[in-house]
Amino acid sequence: MCGRYSLFMTEEDKEIQQIIAEVNRNNPEIQLKTGEIFPTNTAPVLIGGKQALEAKPLIWGFPNFRSKGVIINARAETAAEKRMFQDSLLRRRCVIPSTGFYEWKQDANKQKYLFRNPSDSVTYMAGFWNEYEGERRFVILTTAPNESMREIHNRMPVVLPKGEIENWIFHLDAAMELLHRIPPLLYKEAI
């Protein structure tokens, strides 16, 4: 499960700065959320354009037509079988840039942890998007936890290496392989 993630900008985060600058330049009327990102916030997401990746402002969460709220995650193992997700997974994959994601240990203390890429300031999460009533919305894909996450939670985002972003977005066969790959190990920090 991924219920919150971070998008902080520091002097070193040139890549995050460029993504946010592109969204702001092309969508000056949109108020992007940075810092701790919650469901229903508008955040920068990388999607496939005609020739290259494009940074766009999307809202986190598909409408939940069965009850109130939004659907923020989809299971990598079953997304292709679910009617609500299938078309988006096949045709509208995206990448959610972050500086990490949060998870809480499921015990009496409910300790909050930040998980992030140990070799880069950006952690890329796989997802897909769709349009609802004129709004583009995204969902983050989750998978079984790897060794760095297992003791904290039984799910984690599908984390993509930077070099696999274009394969995830533009190449269906490569994307399906990435969907079932064990994510890279992450750095964990108690918050």
Architecture blueprint of SSEs:
Elements: E1 4-7, H1 14-26, E2 35-37, E3 42-48, E4 53-60, E5 62-63, E6 70-71, E7 73-75, H2 83-91, E8 93-98, E9 100-104, E10 112-116, E11 123-132, E12 135-143, E13 156-157, E14 159-160, H3 165-170, H4 172-179, E15 187-190
Parallel strand pairs: 4-12, 7-12
Antiparallel strand pairs: 1-2, 1-9, 3-4, 3-8, 5-6, 8-11, 9-10, 10-15, 11-12, 11-14, 12-13
Give me some keywords for this one.
alpha+beta, 191 residues, 5-stranded mixed β-barrel
Largest sheet strand order: 2-1-9-10-15
Please report which band the strand proportion falls in: under 5%, 5-15%, 15-25%, 25-35%, 35-45% or over 45%.
Answer: 35-45%
How many angstroms separate the termini?
Answer: 18 Å
Shape field: globular
Q: How would you state the average pLDDT, rounded?
A: 93
How many strands appear in the DSSP assignment? 15
Sketch the major β-sheet.
5 strands, antiparallel
How helix-rich are the residues, as a percent range? 10-25%
Backbone structural class: alpha+beta
What's the quick description here?
Helix content is 19%, strand content 38%. By secondary structure, it is of the alpha+beta class.
Structure commentary:
The chain is of the alpha+beta class. It has helices spanning 14-26, 83-91, 165-170, 172-179, and strands at residues 4-7, 35-37, 42-48, 53-60, 62-63, 70-71, 73-75, 93-98, 100-104, 112-116, 123-132, 135-143, 156-157, 159-160, 187-190. Strands 2-1-9-10-15 form a 5-stranded antiparallel β-sheet, with no helix packed on it. A 5-stranded mixed beta barrel has the order 3-4-12-11-8. A two-stranded antiparallel sheet has the order 5-6. Strand 11 (123-132) and strand 12 form a beta hairpin. The longest helix is centred in the first third of the chain and has 13 residues, at 14-26. The mean pLDDT is 93.
